[in-house]
Amino acid sequence: MLFSATKERTTSVGDRSRLFESLIQDSYKQAYGLAYRLTGNVAEAEDLVQESFVRAYRFFHRYDETLPFTSWLYRIMTNAHIDMVRRKGRIKTTSLEASGTDGATTWDLPDQDASPDRQMLLNALDEPVQKALTSMTAEFRTAVLLADVEGLAYEEVAEIMRTSVGTVRSRIHRGRKQIRTYLLKHAPQTYRSFGDEL
Amino acid sequence: MNCKSVQGRLSAYLDRELGGDELLQIRAHISMCRECRAEVDGLRALKSLLGGIQCPEPPDDLARRLTANVLRHRIEEPRHTLKFSALMFAGVTACSMLATLLALNYGLVHRGGQPNVQANGMSSSAHQTSDGPFGGDGFGSGNVLSAANFGPR
Fold first, then answer.
1. Where are the domains of chain A?
2. Average pLDDT value over all residues in chain B
3. Do B51 and A59 count as a contact with CB atoms less than 8 A apart?
4. Which residues contact B67 (CB under 8 A, 6 or more apart)?
5. Which of B49, B56, B74 faces A125 most closely, judged by CB atoms?
6. With bands split at pLDDT 50, 70 and 90, how would you rate the model's confidence at B114?
7. A23 Cβ under 8 Å from any chain B Cβ
8. What's the mean pLDDT in B87-106?
């Protein structure tokens, strides 16, 4: 009886490891994308992705398999990111400051189905947008990224951030306005040209 | 609805997160107000910008490194599942009931035994009246009483 129980548990752990390995394969790119936007640099993005997957693996028994794994992972990542920000006191922007000018960091952006002008403007605005995101509070940044980059509905964002839909609505609106104010101040011509292109 | 009230809801309007009267009122206001229309256009451009930005591709070996680093961690086992809690509750309840029964029996033994000691040889009918509700109910209390009554002899 005891033997069969132990065997069953061992098998279950082995199955979980294999299942988790496939979940990493399926979701790491998406997770890395959000982590990069949250942290603003490659090194911290990797740290955040790893920390999120480690937490997810350790507490995998809490995962409700009826929901998408990425939603659960994003919730973990959101908390891990806020923990990181609190631990550090502030988010480093040094790698962003260094990028582009000294060649230390390159922006490896994939092609996109868009007009060359629009794509060129998007590329030009990418760095200011990231700086604007980095200058915001973790809560505003997370809400805006989940809604605008990940394309989630407010209810899903609220579920991930464990807050009300009203709070999400407010964070997204105020967050967008902060980004716009930043862009109008730091990249006014490019931002206005992008608006005209639409 | 004034401009300030409308402009506070324009992000939700753009995200199709409004419904009913609220949506109709804002739509009606925007159609008449140039300032709010410009605000909607500005937010729409920003939303499009944020949706279009790309991020660097992850390093080629990231998935391999993640898998290796993550899977060496220990899995936390659930401490109290619902099934476990239910079994615990049933066990504790059963133990409590048993303890209560034993305590009642013990109390009856002493209550029933004392007069016996003092009377030193009262008739057996006195024992039967002191059995109380457990006197002949099959819980075995009668045997315990009988055994206890032999004690003082």
1. 1-102, 109-198
2. 74
3. no
4. A21, A24, A25
5. B49
6. low
7. no
8. 85
Pairwise CB contact (< 8 Å): A16 & B75:
yes
Residue B103 pLDDT class (50, 70, 90 cuts): confident
* Integer Cα distance of B35 and A136 in angstroms: 26
Instruction: Identify all chain B residues contacting A172, using CB atoms and an 8 Å cutoff.
Output: 11-12, 15
In sequence order, what are the residues at sequence separation of 6 or more whose Cβ sits closer than 8 angstroms to the Cβ of residue A163?
none
For B117-151, how does the pLDDT look when each residue is reduced to its tens digit (9 = 90+)? 444 444 444 444 444 434 333 333 334 333 334 33
Q: Cα–Cα–Cα angle for A184, A190, A195, nearest 5°?
A: 80
Q: Under DSSP, is residue B139 helix (H, G, I), strand (E, B) or coil?
A: coil
Query: In chain A, which residues have pLDDT < 70?
Result: 1-13, 90-116, 118, 197-198
Q: Is A192 on the interface with B (CB under 8 A)?
A: no
| Closest Cα in chain B, distance from residue A130 (Å) | 9
Q: What is the CA B55 to chain-centroid distance, rounded? A: 41
Among B41, B61, B75, the strongest candidate for a mutation testing the A interface, having the largest count of A CBs within 10 A, is: B75
Q: In this complex, do B75 and A109 lie within 8 Å of one another by their Cβ atoms? A: no
Predicted local confidence at residue B82, as pLDDT: 65
In angstroms, the CA B94 to CA B76 distance is 30
Rounded Cα–Cα distance for residues B68 and B49 (Å): 36
List phi, psi (to 5°) of A111.
-70, 155
User: Is A29 an interface residue toward B (CB < 8 Å)?
Assistant: yes
pLDDT, one tens digit per residue, over B76-96 is 766 656 666 778 788 888 888
Does the A1-102 domain belong in CATH 1.10.1740.10? yes
How far is A16 from B115, CA to CA, in rounded Å?
Answer: 68
ipTM over 0.90: no
pTM exceeds cut of 0.80: no
Contacts of A130 in chain B (CB under 8 A): 53
Which A residues 66-95 touch B at CB under 8 Å?
A: none
Q: What is the fold of A109-198? A: Arc Repressor Mutant, subunit A (1.10.10)
